[in-house]
Amino acid sequence: MNKPISKFAFSIGVLLFFTSPSSAQDITHLTGSGNFTNGQTGAEEIQQIAVLNFIGAKSTRVSVYPSYYFNPDTKTGNPFSIDSIMLLLYQAGIKPMILFEYYGFYNALGTKDKWYEIGKSFAERWRPNSPYLLSKNIQNWGISVYSAINEPDINTPYIPRTILEGTENYHDALEGLADGVHSIDSTLRIIPGGWASQNAFSWNDANGYGTAIVDLINSGKLAGFDLHTYNDNTYAPIVDKQQEFYWRYCAQADFNEIQQEIGVTKPINFYASEFSYKANILGIGEEESAKRLFTCIWNNLGVVKRDGFTHATEFALVWNLYHTVEFDSVYGMCNQFMPYIPNLRGTTFKRAMELGAGMNFTALDPNGSGIYKLTDGVKDMWVWQNYYRWSDINGTSFTIDLPTDASKIMLYGFDGLRDSVEVAGKQNYTFTQLPESETLVFVILREPIVAENTPSNVKNNNPWTIFPNPATNMVSVKLEGEPVLYQNAIIQLKDMTGRLLLTENVHAGDHSIDMTAYNAGVYILQVSNQVTKTCIKLIKM
Asked: Which terminus of the chain is more exposed, N or C, with fewer CB under 10 A?
C-alpha cells in the first residue's frame, strides 16, 4: 500500500531568489532535474525554480532546440535565446548545463563548421566569467558543460555515426562543438547527449555511437559521456519480481561496461542527465519505487573512475521533479505542481538532499563494499547499498568505525529517521537486525570543537566570529573575548578532507582573510593558540 500524500507544499508566492549564486561542491550541487526549454520564463519555469529550491537541489538542464540555437540564414549561433532563463537560474543559485537537442527526423544535422559556430557562440556568452556575465556582475557562474544530440542510440531514424555513413554525421558534429567551445575556453567540458541503450538493452557500445566517438574521448575533446539510467523490476532491475539481485544495471556497471567495450583509455567523467525508478507499471507501487529511487540517487551520485575510487560524477539529474503522477504516472514525482506537493518519490529525493546538504564525498567503493563516505567537517555520513551483489558485506549487521569526538549515530532509510544511538566514548558501533535489500544512511554527529583547553580564568564562549558567512571574497575574523585569546594565535583554513589550505598569524582582535581564489564550497576556519582553539564552518559562495 502506498504511503499517504506528503504534506509538503510549495508555490510561486514563496519563491525566494538569492542575491548571489550558490555553487558549492556538496552533493546537492551535483543533482537536480530538467528541463528548462528554449529560454522560456513563464509561470511554469518560475515554479520549476521554486521546486528546485524547495527540494534543495542545485543543478538543472537547459534544453535548446535547433531554431533557438542556430540561425540557418546568417549561419550563426543564437546564444541570446536563453538570456532570460539563465539570469533567473543565476539569481536562484541553480547551476545549468546545456543540451542542444537534435533527432534524426529533424532537418539536416549540419556540418562540423556549423557545430563549431554553435559551440563558439554559446561558450563566448555563457562560460563562467565571460564578458557578458561580468557585465551583469556575475562571477564564477555559467555553463561549464555543453552537450548535443539526445539519445541517438534509440531514436529512429538513426543519425549517421561517422563519415562512412554520411557527410553530416554524429562524430563530426560533436567534434565541431568541442572545437568551437574549446576555442573560447579549453577547460569547458563537452559531452554527447544522453545514451539510453546500454541501460535499456545492454548495448555496451551505445548502438555504435560510443565506438564512433571514442577517439574524441581518448583525445580529451569529450570529457566523458552521459547515461540515462532508468531502473525497474523487469528490464533494468535492481531486484526483480523473483527477488533476484542485479548489479549489472546500476550506473556504475553501465559506466564500467561502456568504457571497456568501446576502448576508453583515459580517466573520464560520468554524467547522468536523466535517471529514475519507475512506478505504477510492472506491478511497482509507489513505496517500492521510493525505496529503490533512494538507491538510484546515491548510485548515480557516487560513480567512480576506472581506478575504483576517484569520484567521476559531475551531475546526476532525476527525471522528473516537475511532472505530476496524473501527467506522467511512471516518472512523475509530485501529486500537484502548483502549489507543489511531492509524492513519496519526491519526498524521498528531498530527504536525500537534506541529508547531503554541505556534504562532500571522502571515500567511495561502489565496486566492492557499496559504501560511500561523506563529511561536512561537523558530521560524517556513511551510505551503504545493502544489496546482494551490490555490497560484498551485505547483511543484517553493519559496523561503523567512529571518530574520537563522535557523539551520536542517526540511521535513515528512504522513509526517514529509523534509529538514533548515543556513541560518545566508543571506538566503533555495530547495528544489528538491519533490513536487507535497501540503501541505509548513517549520520555520525560530532561534539563541537570550540574553545578547547581554555584556562578557568579566561571567560570564553566561542570567542571568535566570522563575517560574512556565507562569503564571496573577504572574510572578517573578529575576537569577541579577551585579548589573551589572540596572543600568538594562528588562523588555519582547511577543506572538508582536512587538507590545510592557508595559515596566517593573528596580530590583533580583528583579522581578514581573502577567499577569492578558493572554489565555492564548505571549509573549516580554525583559530588557535596555547589558550584556546575555535573551529567554525565557513561557506564560500
From this structure: N
pLDDT at 481: 58
Q: Report how far residue 344's alpha carbon sits from residue 367's, in angstroms, rounded to the nearest whole number.
A: 29
- How buried is 99 (Cβ within 10 angstroms: 0-12 exposed, 13-18 middle, 19+ buried)? buried
**Grid cell digits, residue 501:** 589550505
- Strands 189-192, 145-148: pairing is parallel
β-sheet with 438-446: strand ranges across = 360-365, 371-375, 379-386, 438-446, 406-413, 416-422
Nearest Cα to 533, choosing from 455, 432, 436?
455
Q: What is the per-residue pLDDT for 540?
A: 82
Strands (E) across 343-415 are located at: 360-365, 371-375, 379-386, 398-401, 406-413
Taking only the tens place, the pLDDT of each residue in 11-22 is 333 333 232 333
Query: Three-state SS for 384?
Result: strand
Q: Give the number of C-alpha atoms closer than 13 A to the C-alpha of residue 159, restricted to the C-beta side.
A: 32
Give DSSP secondary structure letters for 150-161: --TTTSSSPPP-
DSSP character at residue 193: P
- pLDDT per position as a tens digit, 114-137: 999 999 999 999 999 999 999 999
pLDDT at 492 over 80: yes
User: Helix 209-218 crosses helix 170-182 at what angle (to 10 degrees)?
Assistant: 30
Indicate the SS3 state at residue 132: helix
**Which pLDDT score, from 0 to 100, does residue 203 have?**
96
Q: Quick one: residue 400, left, alpha or beta (phi over 0 = left, psi -120 to 50 = alpha)? A: beta
Q: What is the pLDDT of residues 455-483, one digit of tens each?
A: 333 334 556 678 888 888 888 887 665 55
